Amino acid sequence: MAEGKTPVEATREARLRERVRHGLAAEHVELADESGRHVGHPGAAGGAGYYHVVVVSPRFVGLDRVARHRLVYEAVGDLIPDEVHALAISAYAPDEWRARKA
Questions:
Q1: CA 33/CA 49 separation, integer angstroms
Q2: Which of 9, 16, 25, 79 could make an S-S bridge to 5, C-beta 3.0–4.6 Å?
Q3: How far is 79 from 13, CA to CA, in rounded Å?
């Protein structure tokens, strides 16, 4: 379990990461829990999390940002809104990701 995480939070993050990885054939996934920055927001009161996900997938090749975000939301839609209240998305095709890291 991630340090400082409750079992529920760790399980939620694992489910989110798994949905993204398998739903998008992702080569790389980074997930950050930003719930602490949103204390007091309506979604935080119900226990749903705020996350930022970085996804690298060949499925994004040739797609604009909106189409990429739609694919991510399709992959994780069953977790919204009960487990995930908000999701910030950074979606890259593999060549874009390599160029950013060069």
A1: 7
A2: 9
A3: 10
Domain boundaries, the chain: 7-101
Cα 30 from Cα 57, distance rounded (Å):
12
Topology of domain 7-101 in CATH is GMP Synthetase; Chain A, domain 3 (3.30.300)
User: What CA–CA distance (Å, rounded) separates 97 from 13?
Assistant: 23
Say whether pTM exceeds 0.90.
no
